[in-house]
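Help wanted!
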Amino acid sequence: MPTLIPREIETSGPRPERIHGYLSINSQGGVSVLDADTVPAKSDAFHGSSKDLEQAIRVAEEHRLDIVALSPLGIAVAGPAAAYEALTGGQIVTREILVYAEAATRRYVTHLDIVGEGQPRSFGCGRVASDETGIEAVILERPRAPQASAAFAAATSTSAPESGGIWPSPIPPSVQGFYLRVPQDVALGLGAPGAHQRGFRGQNVTVAMVDTGHYLHPFFPAHHYNVQTPISVVTGADRKGDPVGHGTGESANIFAAAPDAQLQPVRAADDSGQLVAALAGFMKAASLKPAILTNSWGGDMDFPPISNQLSPQDAAFALEIKHAVESGIFVVFSAGNGQFSIEPQVPEVFAAGGVYMGSNMALQASNYATGYSSPFFPNRPVPDACGLVGLLPRAAYIMLPLAPGCELDTEQSSPDERGNPGDGTPPNDGWALFSGTSAAAPQIAGVAALLLSANPKLSPAQIKEALIKTAIDITSGRCHPRFNFSAAPGPDLATGAGLVNAAEALKYALAQF
Amino acid sequence: MATDFLQAMVILRPNADADEVRRWFESRGLSVMPMENGMLLTGPGALAEQAFGAGEIAPMCGVERPLPIPADLRDHIESIAIPSRRSTY
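Answered by r_m:
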């Protein structure tokens, strides 16, 4: 059946530690269950002999498969993927398949298949590798959804999924007030359509993003965005999960600028959503040698600092960041939302600040974004230039996709502790209004991907030069009150060179390098 | 209570035997990522706390948390600290 979004997505996602399956005993009727066209009126012909059943039990035990239940037809078993692979000689792979799940809505659910030479085409089925096992087929359990789940219906009651609809919806909700939508409004604000029309869309460029994780929201496959299976550097954390929603949502900014780029998410958050392995995530991501590495995170130190001397640990990490750039990676860090941190100050980094674009496309410095002159590195302004960022108090500005009911989905929908209103979306619909310089960094990473798709030989310094030289100068507004610098004609500490402009940066890069 | 997952940065002395330091931490169940002038340790908080013989060693906001240098490694290590807490912007 045709679907508006891909029915099946190939992934190389993690396999469950324990897989449930079924071993079909050799059918005495002579026709394997794998070859049966119909289910006959009586099951007798598919019963196994007691000899084959005993042999199959031995084989299952030899392969360290736990026997859950027995019948004359087969054995329900459970065990690790490796056990099934040894038994079949095939490989267990994961696929995300769009299925009717709870409450008659459709969503992606992870399925398992056995692939390899000699394996049947039937999804989830395998043949055993050797004779004399008593087993004619290995069948992996398919995910089953509870029918008319009351819990699901309650959880989604405020987002009201329609029967047969895809959940969460790939289409953002409409709320009152002015805000930007991905991809179209963000692309427009960054000047990306002009580059897209010239055929440069970020193709063949990998952008790695270290963040809280990445949830497979239907928004991404609906737009045919290329998201690689996430990597987690946190022991035990689900590679495919994102408890906060930050990494999922902010990554949509990359594709707004560069729809054909390839995203490699690197999860550095634990299951509570704390960014416990940001440094390790950065080093892991850099080791993958992506063209671009974007980071929407940092610390928060005293400003001005007590000492102008970096701590050994900050100096060591700054060296790692420098090394990544020296190896050819264009590294972007968010300047901060009032925070002051070492990462964006590293001179070779592209520090991403914030500009607010209003409904009439008027531009001003975002008072949500950090701006200062580095006390650690001479003549180092932060930011270099800006992406699109909302305003205080909440910067609820870009409608972004995330895991339904995750931390940001819930938080943004509610008034904050000072009584500022929520974003107007339900707390569990998989969409929320947010931004911050966390949005600016992936936007700039996306624009850099456009330039690299036009000229893959551009160095990080050349990309930086093209973005800075062609940014739109911002002359009004102030940055975050903690720093309180004014935007003014020419470069300034509120917005750096201004708002990046993809089309102009592309022209510059093609003409100059 | 042990933090679930920790990262700690090791700054080596100029003539340190980095392999010996790496083996020492790996033998205690921690992962080691080499850095330009040191190494980054990662792993379950409980293992890290055992390795350093320290109590709770969760990261703090804005400042690094120094850790005691294991006696076996004093000739090789200049300092060890848990980096200040990072968060999303």
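OP: Thanks! One thing I noticed: Chain A has two domains: 8-140, 180-512.
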